[in-house]
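Recall that a protein's primary structure is simply its ordered list of amino acids. Everything else, from secondary elements to tertiary packing, is in principle encoded there. The following example makes that idea concrete.
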Amino acid sequence: MTPVLEARNLVRDYHVAGSLFGGGRTVHAVRDISFTLERGKTLAIVGESGSGKSTLARILTLIDRQTSGDLLIDGQTIDIGNGRIGAQLRRKVQIVFQNPYGSLNPRQKIGEVLMEPLKLNTDMPASERRQRAQEMLVKVGLGPEHFNRYPHMFSGGQRQRIAIARAIILNPDLLVLDEPVSALDLSVQAQILNLLADLQEEYNLTYVFISHDLSVVRYIADEVMVMYLGEAVEYGSREQVFAAPSHDYTKSLFAATPRADVDSIKARLARKAAELQT
């Protein structure tokens, strides 16, 4: 089976201009990244700020061009520097950003937000676009009554549901989710993650899920890539990476993650009680 997404030795460099007192330099934002992602699976990309994961996301969503290396979508080699990307290819890849309010036009009603991709990328008549948008609102846990409301009238979790609806309304092959729950309350995070899992199962969606939250990654990922200074320092199945991380950076990430299971909480309380007695 042809992978939905394949990266072969992707590199992204940026040239930083020099000052009066020094020359310019090259920043290696992404270095030699390779992976394959099968249909219906989720690849989680993990790393701290500055690790290169968002730069990689811009390449995968055809926003930025790679400096070198190959990007393949459904077996087709893609290079946005060699001509215009057609609507058919744009439909295959969609993105959901961290801040749903920032990605929605505050002057557009939600119905217009959802119908716009259909208007730009399909020949669907207006009546069908409206019906499709209303159906998608229901699919993400909202309702047709929200069709004529503005973004400011919704909570953060509801706005993220709208952003997800807009992303999948074109039936994409690949959905890139860039920190989609990090700005939400914990209870709302769980709701959005469950929604994403349900939509993936129903539509056989393929996800690239970018996050720094290992507890979220452990819940949603099939495969995990850990990035550090632009490089993939760890790549494997969720079970492999979490059970036996091999790179020191991955181990340090795990060590820095608070553990919220009952045994860990009891152990911390016991240590505090012992410290108070000494």
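Residues 10 and 272 are 48 Å apart (CA to CA). The chain has one domain: 37-67+81-277.
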